[in-house]
Amino acid sequence: MANENSRISELQSVLRKSDNTSTVNLGNILSPDPIGSPETVSVTSATAVGFASIPVGAIGAIVQFDQPVRVSLSGTPTTTSGLLINGGQPVYLESAAELSGFKAIAVSATSTGFVEYRG
Protein backbone atom coordinates (compact mmCIF):
# COMPACT_ATOMS: atom_id res chain seq x y z
CA MET A 1 0.00 0.00 0.00
CA ALA A 2 2.84 2.42 0.84
CA ASN A 3 4.40 1.75 -2.56
CA GLU A 4 1.04 2.47 -4.27
CA ASN A 5 0.65 5.75 -2.33
CA SER A 6 4.17 6.74 -3.36
CA ARG A 7 3.35 6.10 -7.04
CA ILE A 8 0.14 8.14 -6.76
CA SER A 9 2.10 11.04 -5.22
CA GLU A 10 4.61 10.86 -8.07
CA LEU A 11 1.82 10.92 -10.66
CA GLN A 12 0.12 13.84 -8.94
CA SER A 13 3.33 15.85 -9.04
CA VAL A 14 3.55 15.19 -12.79
CA LEU A 15 -0.09 16.25 -13.26
CA ARG A 16 0.17 19.38 -11.09
CA LYS A 17 -1.23 22.44 -12.83
CA SER A 18 1.26 24.94 -14.20
CA ASP A 19 0.16 27.51 -11.60
CA ASN A 20 0.94 24.91 -8.90
CA THR A 21 -2.41 25.51 -7.15
CA SER A 22 -4.02 22.10 -7.42
CA THR A 23 -3.59 18.58 -8.65
CA VAL A 24 -5.75 15.97 -10.26
CA ASN A 25 -7.31 13.67 -7.66
CA LEU A 26 -6.09 10.31 -8.95
CA GLY A 27 -8.07 8.47 -6.30
CA ASN A 28 -11.30 9.66 -7.93
CA ILE A 29 -10.06 8.72 -11.38
CA LEU A 30 -9.02 5.25 -10.26
CA SER A 31 -12.10 4.60 -8.10
CA PRO A 32 -14.83 7.26 -8.42
CA ASP A 33 -17.13 7.84 -5.47
CA PRO A 34 -20.93 7.89 -5.67
CA ILE A 35 -22.24 11.34 -6.56
CA GLY A 36 -25.73 12.81 -6.45
CA SER A 37 -28.82 10.79 -5.72
CA PRO A 38 -29.49 7.39 -7.26
CA GLU A 39 -32.05 7.54 -10.05
CA THR A 40 -34.78 5.13 -11.14
CA VAL A 41 -35.41 4.98 -14.89
CA SER A 42 -38.60 3.46 -16.26
CA VAL A 43 -38.41 2.40 -19.91
CA THR A 44 -41.09 0.97 -22.16
CA SER A 45 -40.99 -0.63 -25.58
CA ALA A 46 -42.54 2.51 -27.10
CA THR A 47 -39.74 5.09 -26.86
CA ALA A 48 -36.02 5.08 -26.04
CA VAL A 49 -35.12 7.30 -23.09
CA GLY A 50 -31.95 8.65 -21.46
CA PHE A 51 -31.29 9.80 -17.92
CA ALA A 52 -33.56 12.45 -16.39
CA SER A 53 -30.93 14.38 -14.45
CA ILE A 54 -27.21 13.67 -14.58
CA PRO A 55 -25.48 15.25 -11.55
CA VAL A 56 -22.86 17.92 -12.18
CA GLY A 57 -19.43 16.32 -11.94
CA ALA A 58 -20.60 12.81 -12.84
CA ILE A 59 -17.96 10.92 -14.84
CA GLY A 60 -19.66 7.55 -14.98
CA ALA A 61 -22.50 5.38 -13.71
CA ILE A 62 -23.56 1.86 -12.94
CA VAL A 63 -26.98 0.94 -14.36
CA GLN A 64 -28.99 -2.24 -13.83
CA PHE A 65 -32.41 -3.02 -15.31
CA ASP A 66 -34.84 -5.64 -14.03
CA GLN A 67 -35.96 -6.78 -17.50
CA PRO A 68 -34.13 -7.00 -20.86
CA VAL A 69 -33.43 -3.70 -22.64
CA ARG A 70 -31.53 -2.57 -25.70
CA VAL A 71 -29.16 0.37 -25.28
CA SER A 72 -27.07 2.71 -27.38
CA LEU A 73 -24.41 5.22 -26.40
CA SER A 74 -24.49 7.17 -29.66
CA GLY A 75 -27.88 6.70 -31.28
CA THR A 76 -31.41 5.53 -30.67
CA PRO A 77 -31.98 1.85 -29.97
CA THR A 78 -35.15 0.00 -30.95
CA THR A 79 -36.72 -3.15 -29.56
CA THR A 80 -34.70 -5.13 -32.14
CA SER A 81 -31.46 -3.10 -32.51
CA GLY A 82 -28.87 -1.87 -30.03
CA LEU A 83 -26.85 -3.69 -27.40
CA LEU A 84 -28.99 -6.30 -25.64
CA ILE A 85 -28.69 -6.08 -21.85
CA ASN A 86 -30.44 -8.85 -19.92
CA GLY A 87 -32.29 -8.13 -16.70
CA GLY A 88 -29.93 -8.04 -13.73
CA GLN A 89 -26.83 -7.45 -15.88
CA PRO A 90 -24.94 -4.27 -14.85
CA VAL A 91 -23.93 -1.67 -17.40
CA TYR A 92 -20.84 0.43 -16.63
CA LEU A 93 -20.71 3.89 -18.19
CA GLU A 94 -17.22 5.36 -17.99
CA SER A 95 -17.38 8.94 -19.27
CA ALA A 96 -19.55 12.04 -19.40
CA ALA A 97 -20.03 11.39 -23.14
CA GLU A 98 -21.40 7.91 -22.44
CA LEU A 99 -23.73 9.33 -19.79
CA SER A 100 -25.15 11.98 -22.12
CA GLY A 101 -25.40 9.60 -25.09
CA PHE A 102 -27.03 6.71 -23.21
CA LYS A 103 -30.52 5.67 -24.31
CA ALA A 104 -32.47 2.53 -23.46
CA ILE A 105 -35.67 0.88 -24.65
CA ALA A 106 -37.42 -2.16 -23.18
CA VAL A 107 -37.39 -5.27 -25.36
CA SER A 108 -41.03 -5.87 -24.39
CA ALA A 109 -43.43 -4.28 -21.91
CA THR A 110 -41.62 -2.25 -19.21
CA SER A 111 -38.24 -2.37 -17.51
CA THR A 112 -37.10 -0.42 -14.47
CA GLY A 113 -33.47 0.59 -14.12
CA PHE A 114 -31.52 1.72 -11.07
CA VAL A 115 -28.70 4.21 -11.73
CA GLU A 116 -25.87 5.15 -9.38
CA TYR A 117 -23.70 7.98 -10.67
CA ARG A 118 -19.95 8.16 -10.01
CA GLY A 119 -17.77 11.25 -9.84
Low-confidence spans: none
**Helix content class:** 10-25%
Specify the number of helices: 3
Give a quick account of the main beta sheet: strands, pairing sense, barrel closure.
Answer: 4 strands, antiparallel
Oligomer: single chain
C-alpha Rg, in Å?
Answer: 18 Å
What would the principal axes of the Cα set say about the shape?
A: globular
CATH superfamily of the largest domain: Jelly Rolls
N-to-C CA distance? 23 Å
What is the level 1 CATH name of the largest domain? Mainly Beta
Describe the structure.
- By secondary structure, this protein is α+β, with helices and mostly antiparallel strands.
- It folds into two domains: 1-31, no CATH class; 39-118, Sandwich (Jelly Rolls).
- Helix content is 21%, strand content 30%.
- The protein is built from three helices and seven strands; from the N terminus they run H-H-E-E-E-E-E-H-E-E.
- The protein has helices spanning 2-15, 26-30, 96-101, and strands at residues 39-44, 60-65, 69-72, 83-85, 90-93, 103-106, 110-118.
- The strands form two sheets. The chain has a four-stranded antiparallel β-sheet with strand order 1-7-2-5. A three-stranded antiparallel β-sheet has the order 4-3-6, with no helix packed on it.
